Amino acid sequence: MHLGISSYTYTWSIGVPGSLPDKQMSASDLVDRAASFGLKLVQIADNLPLENFTDAELENLRQYAFNKGISIEMGGRCLTTEHTLKCLKAAEKLHSPILRMVIDGAGFEPDIPLIIQIIRELLPEFESRKIRLAIENHDRLKALEFEQIIKSINSDWVGICLDSANSMGAGEGFETVAEILIPYTINLHLKDFTIQRVSHKMGFIIEGNPAGSGMLNIEDLISKLNRLGRCQSAILELWTPPEADLASTIFKEATWADRSVEFLKQYFK
User: 2-267 belongs to which CATH class?
Assistant: First the structure.
């Protein structure tokens, strides 16, 4: 398994709707950051949508990353047939071995039968390009529903992008989710977190942390995935709580990224 960083490691630096920095981090900036860490991998996802790049822009980015010894994984959101194919074509241009996809999009929340139908229709496109579809567990669906999708497709070209925090939005703890989805995992999102009761005791706050300083048992998770040998990449993501101003938030995010990569390197020799 190879360690990489993501466009969701630097979410504030790239820009959150309604809170855009004066100079947004670009795809090439992210490649530079990975190189500065001595890493070989970046995953560029839907907050920096590469499917909107021209073919020439994609080739320039691929060549820029190649010259720095960096591989790119492609990520997208909204599993409609048309949009997924658009993302897949961009992934092919970038020589990405996977296409990580979040199923839902704006105004698009398909049921399980429709999800399965779309993936089956697209399967020949993935097979012909030798790119695997990594479906990310996200807020709406339960782990057993993701397992149902994978089992129904029954193809080596489709697996899970296992995110360590997202499924709390569906009311599931990560240990439950991991037990079900680890056997199908081909891509990992390492996102550490804490859960704290609020001062009035009636509720909890879930927040991100630098890797290794939260509640996620990273060593155990990586060990289980390594034993199975299916997951080829582990991508650092951060949920960085904002500070009083954007500049301070971006500085905090970068500091957390530095701490997280330094901590995680011990597990990726």
Answer: alpha beta
